[in-house]
Amino acid sequence: MDLLLRVAPEVRLSSSASGLRASLDAGPVVRTGVPAEATPAGEHVSLAQLEQRVHDAHAVEDVVALGAAEETLGSLHLDNHPLRRRPDPPDTAPLSAKDRAALQRKAFRAALPQVPLFKWSERTKAKAAAEAEAKGFGAALDVAHAVVAQHRTVAVEHQWRELSEHDPATVIAELDAHFAAAECGCTCVDAGWDVATSRGYVTVVGRYPGLDIVGERGPGVSSSGRRMMRRRTRSERNALYLSGLASFALATVRRAISVAVAADDVHVIVVRPTAEGDGLEPIYVGSLSREAVTLRPSLADPVPLLLGSAVCQMQFEGSAHDLVALDPDSHVVEVVRACAEALADEKLDTLLRDPAG
Fold this sequence. Notes:
Mean pLDDT: 79
Helix content: 40-55%
Distance between the termini: 41 Å
Number of strands: 10
Shape: elongated
Strand order of the largest sheet: 3-4-7-8
Structural class: alpha+beta
Strand content: 15-25%
Low-confidence stretches: 1-12, 23-41, 345-357
C-alpha cells in the first residue's frame, strides 16, 4: 500500500519548543475554538514537559515521579478527545438598559450646544435637538449590534461548513491550532480527498523522543516490598519505548479525527532525533482509519494496532529488537528533509532537544 503524502504547497514547516509546526501562506483563518488539554487534576502537561520530568526523575532517582511520568507516556491514547461539534451561534444579547442609557446620556451631552441659561427659547430647542440625536444614536446602536451579531454568526457558520466539508486549508489550520495548543509535538502537513476511495484524509507528522526517554533504570520493588530503582534489560527498554510510541501515534490519530470531522483516514509519520542529535529520522509511517480507531476497545494494547497499520514495515534489529530508522523512501525522505530544514536554526534545535532551555 502506498501512502500519498501530497504535502500542500501552501504549507510552510517551522519549529518551536513544543515540536514541529506548519503555517499557511493563504491568509488568516477564523477558528471555531481550540479546546485546551489538561490532566484530570487540571494541570496542562505537554509532551516536552513529560520528557523533562522523566529526565529529572532519573537524575534524582525519584521512583514515584518516574513511575507517574512513564505511566502517562504509555497512556496518552486514553485521553478523551471529544468530537468537534457544530458551534453554537455567538451571544446576541442586546445591550443592557443601563449601558444603553449611559451611552445615550453621553450622546446627549455631546450633541447639546453651549447655550446661555437666560436664552430659554434657544436652550429648549437645543435640548430637543440633542434628545433627538441621542434617540437616533440609541437606535443606531441597536442596528450596529444586530449587524455585528449576524456577521459573527455567518463567520462561524462558514468556518464550520468549511471544516465539515473537509476544505484542505481550513482543516490544516484547525488541526495545527489544536496541536499547538496541546503542545503534543505534531503538525498537519496535508489534507484532502483520495480520488480512488472517495475518503477524506489528513497527513500528520509527529516528533517523538529518542530511546533515552526510557532509562536504563526504572521503577521496581525490592524483595521486602520497598520501591526502588532497578536495572532494565535492553529488551525491556525497547518494549517500553515501543509501547509509548504506539500510545503517542494512536493519541495523535484520535486528536486528528476529533477535529477533522470529515476525515476518514489519518496518515501518520513519526520522526525522532538521530543518535547524534543533529537531525531527524523516520521510525513509523502508517495509516489508520476512523473506524479502526473508534471501534477498538479503549483499553486494548495499542502496539498491535501500530504494527498492523504501518505501511512501511517498521525496522527492528538484533535479539533485543532495537527500533531503527526506516529504509529510505522518496516520499518519506522528502518530508523528513523539510522537517530537518525547519529545525536548522541552532537555537530552536537546542530548545527542541532540551525543553528546559
